[in-house]
């Protein structure tokens, strides 16, 4: 038993889970009724359900981002892609059916992903720079689609995606779960997952092993683009409108934080989808906690920043060394 | 005749391309719109973007070391908030400026320490710094604070007249000083050489015994100091403090650096570049303003297209350099191959 526990503390997922657990315990002490779940009209209500519901867009984007970061890449354009897909879906729904709109929204996600992937893999441009272009242009394109206005959406099927209930739980939770399971299956059971990890670890070695890194990178960015598009659909469906300016603003930063908190290294290599899920849950729980404690919501950013610095410090080997040896014999950091 | 041959150094391609672009766009503007070619319109480019020039120049040092500073936009807003609230309390204006600069230095030292000492990724640390600065400015107040201080008003109304009627503001003077100082630092000081060495290859820099950690910390201090200075200039320009000022400005600063020919991989770039980048972005904005019928989001699209062009150009130059090196290596390999053959012939 002790052995298993010790092993568990060595795994990457230990720190994010610990952070989440500490946060939840804090909630248990501070907020009465945080863990209570009640049933109204056959639907479940409660803070925990709320967290699960709200986290979905961030979660889906973070999962896509994990795939990209696994190859030492980064995609900072996801927020703009989210805005574009929401805007496109809303504008198409004005004239044709909801299914066309959904397909078009996901299609634009693939196109944006392929564009980023093409710049990164074919032209060999640094990922951050390549995606910076779409980050800046994307919101302009989204505004072009909406004509600079906030489009309102009035469609029952589309509304159901954002705020419907299935089996007593909000529908977005199921979308998030589906995306997570599909990508987890891809990672564990398909060649693509293996290839992505191998490219992240050592590009040259994988090339000699007969993997075509360029194609894999292209697919990785396309997956990230689709994830961003799905999140865009959920976000716009949830508020029944598409806002080119503010939809998904700063979500790319939250997503990167979720990935890093989850234990995936920014330098590529092994990636942890479940860690990312925990990271996203951590960020959303923090947000909900601050709202329910009744602190001014603007403070959220300060708390987020401090939490992130602490979590990252504990992930850093050097800091842990310094922390453990605090007060003992002084060993200079190298 | 040989001496007059146009011999362009590869390193200058980016700067020349950006300058060419500025001249082309400015020429297009002057031909298409009446009143575009006046001196004041040109000087307004500097007046409106002085804070961005200062911030982008500070950021350029960070990028040359291979890092990034995402906290700049939020920090400018934070400084505007701090100075506005301190002035509201009735503090002396110059003391407020001094406090702002000191906060900048402390903030940069904190970020640099975390990055260099614990090997944290600069993206994450400065991201946290961005959240911290934005959140902290909302802690001070969630509303916009108008500045009524006399010293600040007189400073903001200060005009230095050049060529008759046209003038520049105090912000432009500060920006010119910052650019001049950083040009000097990059070219003629030990610090500048260390910065380029670290950006070129951290491993070799360490092996050479260069103070990598110290330089990294100083680079972030300089960047935050520039943000604080930019914040003061921006506060003078707006005469108000607000936590939502300049959302997404860090991306503008990065774009200015890229357009100005500073490679985001680090180790290369001239410190005049960010200024040129800011100018070309400013000209796009001015053209769209003069055009009148185009909406403001076209600015973003135009800047994005420009960014794409420059990134592809950077890529082409780097690729050409790589090819040339490869050819040289091949030549060396050929000469190396010949010798063993002779040797082996002797021994037969």
Automatic annotation (TrEMBL), chain B:
GO molecular function terms listed in the Swiss-Prot or TrEMBL record: transmembrane transporter activity
Record's keyword annotation contains Glycoprotein: no
Transmembrane segments: 12-31, 51-79, 91-114, 120-140, 160-186, 217-239, 251-272, 297-318
Membrane-protein topology: Multi-pass membrane protein
Compartments it resides in: Cell membrane
Any single GO CC term annotated in Swiss-Prot or TrEMBL for this entry: plasma membrane
InterPro entries from the UniProt entry: ABC_transp_permease
Pfam families, sorted: BPD_transp_2 (PF02653)
Keywords of the record: Cell membrane, Membrane, Transmembrane, Transmembrane helix
Domain of life (superkingdom): Bacteria
Predominant location category: membrane
Keyword Lyase found: no
NCBIfam families, sorted: PRK11618.1 (NF008630)
Protein name (database record): Sugar ABC transporter permease YjfF
């Amino acid at each position: 038993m002790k052995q298993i526990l010790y092993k568990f503390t060595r795994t990457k997922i230990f720190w994010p889970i610990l952070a989440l657990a500490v946060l939840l315990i804090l909630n248990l002490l501070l907020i009465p009724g945080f863990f209570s779940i009640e049933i109204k009209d056959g639907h479940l209500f409660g803070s925990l359900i709320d967290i699960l519901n709200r986290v979905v867009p961030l979660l889906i984007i973070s999962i896509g981002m994990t795939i990209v970061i696994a190859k030492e890449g980064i995609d900072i354009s996801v927020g703009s892609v989210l805005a574009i897909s929401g805007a496109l879906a809303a504008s198409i729904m004005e004239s044709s059916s909801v299914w066309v709109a959904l397909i078009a929204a996901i299609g634009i996600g693939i196109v944006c992903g392929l564009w980023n992937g093409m710049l990164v893999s074919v032209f060999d441009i640094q990922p951050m720079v390549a995606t910076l272009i779409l980050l800046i242009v994307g919101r302009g394109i989204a505004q072009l689609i909406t004509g600079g206005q906030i489009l309102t959406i009035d469609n029952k099927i589309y509304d159901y995606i954002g705020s419907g209930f299935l089996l007593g739980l909000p529908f977005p939770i199921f979308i998030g779960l589906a995306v997570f399971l599909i990508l987890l299956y891809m990672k564990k059971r398909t060649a693509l997952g293996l290839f992505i990890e191998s490219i992240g670890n050592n590009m040259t070695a994988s090339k000699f092993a007969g993997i075509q890194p360029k194609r894999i990178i292209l697919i990785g960015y396309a997956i990230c683009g689709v994830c961003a598009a799905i999140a865009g659909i959920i976000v716009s469906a949830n508020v029944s409108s598409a806002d080119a300016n503010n939809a998904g603003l700063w979500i790319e930063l939250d997503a990167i934080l979720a990935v890093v908190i989850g234990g995936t290294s920014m330098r590529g290599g092994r990636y942890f989808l479940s860690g990312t899920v925990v990271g996203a849950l951590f960020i959303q729980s923090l947000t909900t906690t601050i709202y329910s404690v009744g602190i001014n919501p603007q403070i959220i950013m300060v708390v987020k920043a401090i939490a992130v610095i602490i979590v990252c410090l504990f992930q850093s080997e050097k800091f842990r060394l310094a922390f453990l040896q605090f007060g003992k014999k002084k060993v200079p950091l190298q | 005749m040989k001496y007059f041959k146009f011999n362009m150094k590869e390193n200058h391609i980016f700067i020349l391309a950006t300058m060419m672009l500025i001249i082309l766009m400015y020429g297009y503007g002057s031909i298409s719109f009446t009143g575009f070619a006046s001196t004041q319109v040109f000087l307004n480019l500097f007046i409106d973007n002085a804070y961005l020039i200062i911030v982008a120049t500070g950021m350029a040092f960070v990028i040359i070391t291979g890092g990034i500073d995402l906290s700049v936009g939020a920090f400018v807003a934070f400084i505007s908030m701090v100075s506005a609230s301190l002035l509201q309390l009735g503090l002396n204006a110059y003391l407020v400026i001094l406090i702002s600069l000191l906060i900048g230095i402390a903030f940069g030292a904190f970020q640099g320490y975390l990055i260099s000492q614990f090997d944290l990724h600069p993206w994450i640390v400065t991201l946290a710094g961005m959240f911290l600065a934005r959140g902290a400015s909302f802690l001070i107040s969630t509303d916009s604070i108008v500045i009524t201080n006399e010293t600040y008003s007189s400073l903001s109304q200060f005009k230095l007249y050049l060529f008759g009627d046209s003038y520049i503001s105090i912000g432009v003077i500060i920006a010119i000083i910052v650019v001049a100082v950083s040009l000097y630092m990059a070219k003629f000081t030990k610090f500048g050489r260390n910065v380029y060495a670290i950006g070129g290859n951290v491993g070799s820099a360490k092996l050479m015994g260069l103070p990598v950690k110290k330089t990294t910390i100083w680079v972030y201090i300089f960047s935050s100091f520039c943000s604080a200075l930019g914040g003061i200039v921006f506060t003078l320009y707006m005469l108000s403090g607000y936590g939502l000022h300049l959302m997404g400005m860090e991306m503008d600063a990065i774009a200015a650096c890229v357009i100005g020919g500073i490679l985001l991989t680090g180790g290369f770039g001239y410190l005049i570049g960010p200024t040129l980048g800011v100018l070309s972005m400013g000209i796009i904005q001015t053209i769209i303003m003069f055009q009148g019928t185009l909406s403001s989001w076209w600015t973003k699209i135009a800047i994005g297209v420009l960014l794409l062009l420059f990134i592809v150009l950077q890529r082409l130059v780097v690729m050409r350099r790589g090819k040339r090196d490869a050819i040289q290596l091949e030549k060396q390999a050929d000469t190396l191959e010949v010798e063993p053959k002779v040797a082996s012939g002797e021994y037969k």
